[in-house]
Write a structure and sequence with these properties.
about 325 residues, alpha/beta, Glycerol-3-phosphate (1)-acyltransferase, two-stranded antiparallel sheet, 11 helices, disordered N terminus
Amino acid sequence: MRRVPAREDGPEHRLVRAHRGDRRDRAVDGADRDRVRPHAEASFRLALALWLGRRVGDILYALLPGRRRIALENLAIAFPDRPAGERRKLCRASFEHVGMMLAETCVLLLSDPARMLSRVSVEGLEHLTAAATTPGGVLMLTAHFGNWELLGLAHTLSGLPLTVVVRPLDSVLLNRLAERLRARTGTELIAKRRALRPVLEALRRGRMVGILLDQNTARGEGVFVPFFGRPASTSRSLALLSLRTGRPIVPVFIHREQDGRHRILVEPALVAPAANSPEAAIVELTAECARRTEAMIRRWPEQWFWLHRRWRTTPSRS
């Protein structure tokens, strides 16, 4: 049987090569060696964790045919012009991305958050700073994209305390891990149900309130806006909050770079629409949120959570 060579294009291999380069190229002794060794060892442990995470993703791809089918159906909706083989590769890569997220979560839970923070950079921080110049907090648009749990570190980099509206995960184990991780990053959590009053209070305290707006919403709870060319039921909550409070919506996403580091991308605040009615304004602003999210996914499609039935709720035929 022909042996398939191991993939060496992932971030974990780049970390290992960098670790080897440190050993070859840097002549260290005494205090220098003691100073360099912890960083090199931490890089190697993270590289190993990422490699294991990708393998976990491969296993999930094989063992979860239902989720694999959902992901492939979603990819066919989003990229109908791409060959089926390319969509299958994207599907597998998205499973590997989920595995690497799980690995990074474990590393963050077992180590000093400052080490992971050193691997996160921010682009466009001035947009958050500008939005926070007036009192009343900031609304943050984000998505299940990149390692979104690391956005909990964003408040450390921005200086703005972070509150996130969340829905408990279906898996009790994964939900506990997520809660522990969010506690370590200092993120304040608000349960999705009956979130309006706590969110308004968080804004009054000058906090940055993050809402993930990329998942399916039940009929009657959202509005239909275009997402990859198909109507998608999307929560109206973010637009409603912005229009009622006058607080800006700032898109903030995070993506994994080729070397395994993470970059937070902060975009300019959305402009409130000049619509003919409050409902039309909600729809228009929600549609702009969907456009910003779609644009980010198109840049790094393997880093979105395709395993979710995004288009499950369909418009009524009546």
